[in-house]
Specification:
Largest sheet: 5 strands, mixed, barrel
Helix content: 25-40%
Strand order of the largest sheet: 5-8-7-6-9
CATH superfamily: Nucleoside phosphorylase domain
Bound molecules: hypoxanthine
Radius of gyration: 17 Å
Shape: globular
Strand content: 15-25%
Structural class: alpha/beta
Distance between the termini: 29 Å
Length: about 270
């Protein structure tokens, strides 16, 4: 961990105000960055290999919508066999580099029948419906004291209100709901989807929770947004990662307008 943080610190050309993690198919937003510096994660000794297509495996720094932004184009997932701590690396890096806010984005399946593919959903709450295969373990770092215990929500509700109001003021439709975290590696069975619906989940995905859990523990404020790429269907359908990426590409223009609005106003 220390050598990863040191390598990023040596490369980093400025001080980020905001860090953004891009979910599957959403990383193309970095084309709008200026004064861009790119650090391929494969150049960072000890950085876990990113093997999922649609995740480029880059850490980037640049100017975006008036702010210095540190961006992660490529996530580390539990379903690739990585640990909770490895999956949380964007949050550790955001904390160490001084970014005050982490915006975490993902592709997710819609569980709530009111959510359609193409919708954006502000995550208001989290659900961990199935037992996790690994311990939730976040090692202490010297730079900030860890927070322990759960009180209320990992989601900063005041910041979520700000985002909600920004979207409304700018005529950008955004839904709100609960994100259920599952480990994968397969998409959900029909029985699991029925279970998730009854449990109060609005959307389901295989990412985001490790990094926002770690961000919360480190005192970093977080905004989390799901791009609904498919309906998690209880009738037989075959969902592929290609379908998810294709739908993410379609909603990219609306996603990037919303993200720009958030970044410039936070
Ligand atoms: N399930 C889990 N993860 C996902 C889905 C889904 O339906 N869509 C995009 N990521």
């Amino acid at each position: 961990m220390k050598s990863i943080l040191d390598t990023v610190a040596r490369w980093l050309p400025g001080t980020p105000e905001i860090a953004v993690v891009f979910g599957s198919g959403l990383g193309a937003v970095v084309e709008d960055f200026t004064a861009l510096s790119v650090l391929p994660t494969s150049d960072i000794p000890g950085f876990p290999a990113i093997s999922v297509s649609g995740h480029a495996g880059n850490i980037l720094f640049g100017s975006y919508c008036g702010k210095n932004v540190l961006a992660f184009q490529g996530r580390i997932h539990l379903y690739e066999g990585h640990t909770w701590t490895e999956a949380s690396l964007p949050a550790f890096i955001a904390v160490e580099t001084g970014a005050g806010i982490l915006i975490s984005t993902n592709a997710a399946g819609g569980i709530n029948p009111l959510l359609d593919p193409g919708d954006l959903m502000l995550i208001r709450d989290l659900l961990i419906p199935f037992p996790l295969p690994r311990r939730w373990h976040v090692p202490a770092t010297p730079s900030s004291a860890p927070r322990t215990g759960f009180s209320g929500s990992l989601i900063d509700q005041e910041l979520a209100d700000v985002v909600r109001n920004l979207a409304a003021r700018n005529g950008l439709p955004i839904r709100q709901g609960t994100y259920a975290f599952v480990t994968g590696p397969t998409y959900e069975t029909r029985a699991e989807i029925r279970f998730l619906r009854r449990s109060g989940a609005d959307a389901v995905g295989m990412s985001t929770l490790p990094e926002i859990h770690t961000a919360w523990k480190r005192g970093l404020k977080t905004v989390a947004i799901s791009a609904i790429t498919n309906v998690a269907s209880t009738v037989p359908t075959i969902l592929t990662h290609e379908d998810v990426k294709d739908q993410a590409r379609l909603l990219l223009p609306r996603f990037s307008r919303l993200l720009c609005e958030i970044v410039s106003n936070l």
